[in-house]
Records
---
Amino acid sequence: MVMFTKLLLAHLIGDFLLQPNRWVIHKEANRAASKYLYYHVLLHFLVTMILLWDLSYWNIALVIAVSHYVIDLAKLYTTPLFKLKSIPFFIDQALHLVVLYVCAYYENLPEHTIALFEKLDWPLATALIFVTFPAAIIMGKLLEAMSDKIELDHKSLPNAGKYIGIIERLFVLMFIILDRWEAIGLLIAAKSVFRFNDLKESNNRKLTEYILIGTLLSFGLAIIAGVVYINVR
């Protein structure tokens, strides 16, 4: 675990703390011809070696540096194919994490991977998945008849409400697991404050009732998921 933590820290330092924005722009414009791509890879090698502080691990640092070059180069050439730049970014980061994991546990990789899955808290994973998109879909079905009667006179970000609901349910689930029920009340109060001006300006009773029902339903599903998890873990 210590090895993986050091490798992860080196990655975070090299990819985020020590990579100026001008490097990123130059790499995107020049790709393989960018000198900053090679500076970036060399930087990763040096930071990894410094954090490991053992010359015998030079081969691990080299594997990470070479794989980082290949992954970054692939991202630079495939990014224009994606409408959202966040998609290749997260794919890139996921591949880097896989490489770090393999390098940290290469001596007993199959055994460690199997043990990792065996120790996984499956009820927690199920609860986390449930309060995200499944709960959002369930709420959409339950509120479908009401949503058709709501007239919105303002524009909002696409799917903003859905993602706000997902985030709030994740917070509620976390508070329940940590046995901090009072924090749920604070979360409801905070959301009410943010919504107050919108509801006041709209002067729309149907919208107010719809938001209230949706909020209570969202919190209710998260609370149910949290209570079930606590009782089955």
---
Amino acid sequence: MHAGSAVAAAATFVWLGMVLAISFLEAPLKFRAPGVTLPLGLGIGRLVFRALNACEAVLAVVVIAGLLVGRAGAGVAVAAGVAVVTLAVQVLLVRPALTRRSDQVLAGADGPRSHAHLVYVGLEVAKVVALVVTGVLLFAG
């Protein structure tokens, strides 16, 4: 395996682990912890997901750079591209809607739950699949 591909694989699996740990473990569990109110959970979530997305952006750059240096195949590039585009959609399009809704909840507003949350979760699932495929293809190549 070329060094660039090895770096891309490592960054891919670190990225995958972070998404799985935060989005599918920490996020749902924090609201079940004793004493965590909805406003407190939303505040924690904002901080955690802002940090996660920043780390994801750095890892995405590392993956892309590793793929360019390692001259990865088209399948790997497509899978990694799906993960990167998914992250961009989450950060640029979905998170602003989630922030607006959480601002309303923190201000005391009631109302229906945001569909943006379901979109974000669906994108997380797609990103996880794309990262698994990227990592597996890097190891197989």
